[in-house]
Design a protein that fits this description.
- Keywords: Methyltransferase, S-adenosyl-L-methionine, Transferase.
- This is Methyltransferase domain-containing protein.
- GO terms for molecular function: methyltransferase activity.
- This protein has 189 residues and is α/β, with parallel strands linked by helices.
- Helices cover 25% and strands 25% of the residues.
- It has one domain: 3-Layer(aba) Sandwich (Rossmann fold).
- The longest helix is centred in the middle third of the chain and has 13 residues.
- It binds S-adenosylmethionine.
- S-adenosylmethionine binds next to α1.
Length: 189
């Protein structure tokens, strides 16, 4: 069993199951195609996969934790959602080139994977990405800076794509207002 699996199995064993889609998807779901193949990568409880399936896409959801994949599978069966749930280490087994119309990644960052993610998208394919930044005003998200985005990093990691939506407010202005701590990107290949 990998360290990642051990860590995340323990977390999901103790977390209430309540799948919630991320903001990058809920706010921009009108940009989704009407049909196509979609992947919720490192899906956790699979809130993004649920939204994608309800939008009529052909959805897979992959995570290294068999505990959470079983929870998502049970939820999908109970709610008649056709989600292909798979326990999969996405670093060891990234998505195949040219296999996806939509790719959603939320709160997962491994820079080694970015080239594979880019090549997994078909021409015109959409990437929805959201995760924590180093420049944050609250003590939320990972402590290890390897898992935090530097300034504008999503833009440089996916610089060959067309940016359709981007938000990152950093530490500017009134910290009581706005959307902080994270960056989100919707980009088209
Ligand atoms: C912070 S959670 C985010 C889950 C989900 N995307 C969300 O937005 O709620 C990170 C997820 O990455 C998964 N993960 C970590 N390493 C992984 C790997 N190598 N392959 C696949 N999933 C992995 C964990 O099991 C965990 O579910």
């Amino acid at each position: 069993m990998s360290k990642a699996q051990e860590k995340w199995d323990a977390i999901y064993d103790n977390r209430q199951y309540s799948p919630t889609a991320s903001l990058v998807l809920t706010q921009n779901q009108h940009l989704l195609p009407k049909q196509g193949i979609a992947l919720d990568l490192a899906c956790g409880q699979g809130g993004n996969a649920v939204l994608l399936a309800k939008s009529g896409l052909d959805v897979s959801a992959w995570d290294v934790s068999p505990v959470v994949i079983q929870q998502l599978q049970d939820f999908s069966a109970k709610n008649n959602l056709a989600i292909n749930c798979q326990t999969r280490d996405v670093i060891a087994s990234p998505p195949e080139p040219n296999s996806l119309d939509v790719l959603v990644v939320s709160f997962f960052l491994d820079r080694r994977l970015c080239e594979s993610l880019l090549s997994a998208l078909r021409p015109g394919g959409l990437l929805f990405y959201q995760t924590y930044c180093q420049q944050k005003i609250e003590n939320k998200g990972p402590e290890n800076t390897n898992f935090l985005l530097t300034d504008n990093e999503l833009l440089s990691l996916f610089s060959t794509m067309k940016v359709r939506v981007y938000r990152e407010e950093s530490l500017l202005g009134d910290h009581q207002l706005g959307w902080r701590n994270q960056a989100l990107l919707v980009a088209e290949k």
